[in-house]
Every structure is written in C-alpha cells, then in structure tokens.
C-alpha cells in the first residue's frame, strides 16, 4: 500500500483552520468569564434607596453603650463604650443621586458625617460607606439593617482587605427624635435614667412631686424648667462624677450630682474645686432630693 506524503507547507495549511477555531473558542470563554453581569442582574441605586431608605431613616445609638447605661445607671461608667461612632442621624432628605450623607456623633464628644452609597455591598443586605479605618487603611465599612420581630437594628460592619469581618457594631433606634439632630444619645439616656413621674422628699423632709420628660423638660423642681444629663466625659471639668445641669431662664444653671438604684433617684449638691496647681474637680455635697419613680 502506498501513502501519499504531502509537503510540509500543505500539512500546515490543513491544520491552521482547526488551530484558529480553538483559539477563538478560548477567547470567547475568557471574555464571557470577565464580562460584567447582564443589565438585568444589576441592582440600580433607585431600587436600593427604595428598599433600604425606610429601614435606615431615624436616629440610632450604640447598643453596647445603652446596655451599659441600663446596667450601671451611670453615663460616666458607660462612657468608654460609646465607640468611635456613638450615634447616627439619618435623614432621607440628604439623599443625592446614589448616595446619602449621614450625621454622626463621634465618641459622644464631637460631630461628623459619613456617606452611604446605594450600591451593592459585600453582603446581599448591606450598603458600602466611605467610613475610613485609620489604623488599617485597606479596611472597608458597610451598613446594614437586621429586622427582628419587634425592633430593627442598624449594624456597621468593618471588613479587612481579604474581606474578613474585623468588627461589628450594633445601634438601637431611638424614637421621637428628629432625623436631622444629633441628640438621640442624650434622649436615650434621659429615658433610661430620668423620664417619668416621681414622688419623694427634699433635704428637710418636705414632700415633692417631680416629672422628667425624655426631651429634657422638668416640672415640680423649684428653680428649674429643663435639665441636661452630662454624657460627655472626654474633657473639661465635671468628668469626676455623674451630673445633670438644671436650667431656668430666670436664674443661673445649677449642676447636680445624681445616683440611681432601681427606681430610686437621689440628687446631691456639687462643688467645683479649682486648685491653683491642678485641674478643677467636681465633688459631691449633701443630699437634696430622694425620689422614687412611679410605675
């Protein structure tokens, strides 16, 4: 039997179309693997805003901080748990295109803001933010909402460069606070420690009836129409003991020390000691009122 031996250049011509077809197939597969998802799979900013907006709106306070206030009855002892961001104030009126600027309380000492982006996050129920991690610049933070049977929790999650969870901080919604004010933390503290009706006695045994409201108003306390609970122990005099300042337009403010045990609230006079060679110190004086919250 005879075999036809073809010249080398003829063999090359015969195999070339097959090689080209294989290369085209590989290129097509690679392009398909790296191409963006079809438009139908993309979640648009308007859709995300409609989905997340109603959940995000409102005022939120660090849940760990509030837990320590409830346990210790002391804003001073709880101060270390305020966290880097102590509260959020989220108003949808500040939305622009695909982003939303949010007001912040920073460590309950000063204010700031961050931006939430209505774009897909690392998790199906999260949105990216521009909140930086100054210790690890490569980290990113996203915000999400966890909807429970009774309450919704706001969660700020920080991820490392390799997208592992570095930390999660939860926030409780505080009702009755305008979404454009950074006052939710104080409102929450007032609710836990003061708000309600009280009966009791003053320093000489006279009966009193006093009412505190969550928004800082007081009735029945001589010489006072409003009160401001100190929650910032980051600097300045008055960081030594828990204190509340009572105000009245007709007289100077008065700073009072307080303690709470269950439903019993005690108010004490204070003195600000100002030594020449040391920082001022707020000290407790005599008992002014012993009050019991009525249920």
TrEMBL record:
Keywords, alphabetical: Signal
Signal sequence range: 1-21
Record bears the keyword Signal: yes
Species in which this protein is naturally found: Hymenobacter metallicola
Keyword Signal: yes
UniProt protein name: Uncharacterized protein
Annotated spans, Disordered: 214-239
